[in-house]
Design a protein that fits this description.
Elements: H1 6-12, H2 21-36, H3 43-49, H4 59-66, H5 72-87, E1 96-100, E2 109-122, E3 125-136, E4 145-149, H6 156-180, H7 190-215, H8 229-233, H9 237-246, H10 250-256
Antiparallel strand pairs: 1-2, 2-3, 3-4
Length: 262
Amino acid sequence: MRTLPSTMVQALAPFAPLFSKRVWQHAQLLVVGAILAPGKRTVASALRAMGLDQEKRFHRYHRVLSRASWSSLKVSRIFFDLLVEAFVSEPRTVWEPTTIANWYGSAERTVEIVSATAGWYSTGLPAVPVRWVLVRDPEGDFKTQALLCTNLNADPRKVLSWFVMRWQLEVTFQEARRHLGFETQRQWSEMAIRRTTPALLGLFSLIALLVDRQMTPAVGVVRQAAWDTISVIRPSQTLWRWCARSCGPMRLFAGRLRRPTR
């Protein structure tokens, strides 16, 4: 096992906990070999640069990418934190506190932001100017996040508010998948494919409207989350009576539905 320079060992140390001891030994050599290798960066070229082109157990290095258990997402998170610490969190960086409402469904929360413009590069495509906004929690409850916006003149607070607006959309789609079979339906007709998803989202809205009307006359009724509304409508006496008169055999099925716990 080759001994790496101390500077390289220190640079790679934050990533060590993400790998097993054996895999980490091979991964370090691949990283250094990829830095030193000319031309294309492959496992073979990395081993060749490290003088391991005659290694009998070369397959172990290939398994770092093909079979070893580690998360590239966790690696990217460590990279992100290190880059922010190195290039953003300097004494001259001025973090601006701002209060944002509905931060992921919670009440108002004070966060700190810093913003500037930069160029977004992608292989084979022209560079795109973007405004970036870094958001961090002074209390440390959530990790620092980076937001990007193609509107260079957008106010950073506005960009943050746009991001927060996604929460309602994400919850709606998540609950539609969980309770209404969203994205699980199968059709052969192109027209049916186009209509089913909007129809299910419309069903989501219809349930919310029905529950709202059912609960409005009641006094002291606590409104439930959207995903609980089906359980409110199902025991509705009006629907059960109609089903009993019109559905016939459905009465047995209806009786088996679990009633909500009071």
